[in-house]
Amino acid sequence: MTKQLLTLKDAYKDYFKVGVAVSPETLERDGDLIIKQFNSLTAENVMKPEEVQPEEGTFTFDKADSIVDFAKANDMMMRGHTLVWHNQTPEWVFKDGDKAASRELALDRMKKHIDVVMNHFKTPFYAWDVINEVIADEGNDLLRESPWRSIIGDDYVQKAFEFARQANPDVALYYNDYNESHPAKRDKIYSMIKDMMDKGTPIDGVGLQAHWGLEDPSLDNIRAAIEKYASLGLKLQVTEMDVSVFNFGDKRTDLTSPTDEMMEKQAERYDAFFSLFREYSEHIDSVTLWAASDRYNWLDDFPVRGRKNWPMLFDVNNQPKESFNKVVSFK
């Protein structure tokens, strides 16, 4: 006998927070759905460095503040995303006039950015992605090449966490990455974080982005990743979840709506994923979906620009899909 629960946040109130990525536009358009289903918000883009500090010393918080105000008005929590990243960071950060910035200048700018942003955003934040996607996808290098790394050195990751803890001693600090369940990258992430912890770096958790698909990653690999990260004694958060209906490398553009087979497989996958999250809810603090519905999501433009995707729990009319029914119906 299964128990039908009406909302995500009610279904999982004894397990973990259920969040969603939003923009000021999606809050205006889809606010009713978001208020009903979720209890945590993440700014999809408007808290990233280029949005909040487009010019040195000029901070523009209006868009981000509108999301925080929405969260407060509707008794929701906030995840901060993201303080340091190699993408969506303005070029001036890495420049000193017409030459590259020095290590000292880059570190000073990193610290000032983190200080101002974390002191501006306090309640109702329970976690921040301090640094995003620093692990190399391929090869033997642990860290990817980036301006942060080339200017500061490999310890820029540790420095970001130290600056964040100094700025706010009370919020949980997370490292966030994609392909976090693929064994080779999983082991790199684990190695980096363990080394940081051995050096006393103030890190509280690992963010599993969970941009997953109908075939990959396998449940065994996800389970292994959860167990490996949790073995460090850190909390885990699923931070950017969606389930693409197209397998990696599939470039087809002929569909104007998803096939029945896609929707059936997606429902099975969501059901299996959330079953796994419930099993490991002792370690998992929140699960955030990277859009409220199929009406809008970043996969509409990635990896094939302009190709519609249908990766979420609600359809283009904000109606629940079979994936949603599976996720909220469990013994």
List the SSEs and their pairings.
Blueprint: E1 3-4, H1 8-11, E2 17-22, H2 24-37, E3 40-43, H3 49-52, H4 62-73, E4 77-84, E5 95-96, E6 99-100, H5 103-120, E7 125-132, H6 147-152, H7 156-167, E8 172-177, H8 183-198, E9 205-208, E10 211-213, H9 219-230, E11 235-244, H10 260-279, E12 284-289, H11 322-328, E13 329-330
Parallel strand pairs: 2-3, 2-12, 3-4, 4-7, 7-8, 8-9, 9-11, 10-11, 11-12
Antiparallel strand pairs: 1-13, 5-6
Helix pairs in contact: 5-7, 10-11
Shape: globular
Low-confidence stretches: none
Number of strands: 13
Arithmetic mean of pLDDT: 96
Tell me the quaternary state. single chain
Order of strands in the sheet with most strands: 2-3-4-7-8-9-11-12
Strand content: 15-25%
Cα end-to-end separation: 7 Å
Total number of domains: 1
Estimate the helix proportion, in percent: 25-40%
Please describe the biggest sheet, giving its number of strands, its sense, and whether it closes into a barrel. 8 strands, parallel, barrel
Instruction: Give the name of the CATH superfamily.
Output: Glycosidases
Gyration radius from CA atoms, angstroms = 19 Å
Report the total helices.
11
Q: What would you note in describing this structure?
A:
- 38% of the residues lie in helices and 19% in strands.
- By secondary structure, it is an alpha/beta fold.
- The chain has one domain (3-330): TIM Barrel.
- Strands 2-3-4-7-8-9-11-12 form an eight-stranded parallel barrel, surrounded by six helices. Strands 1-13 form a two-stranded antiparallel sheet.
- Helix 9 (219-230) links the parallel strand 10 (211-213) and strand 11.
- The radius of gyration is 19 Å and the shape is globular.
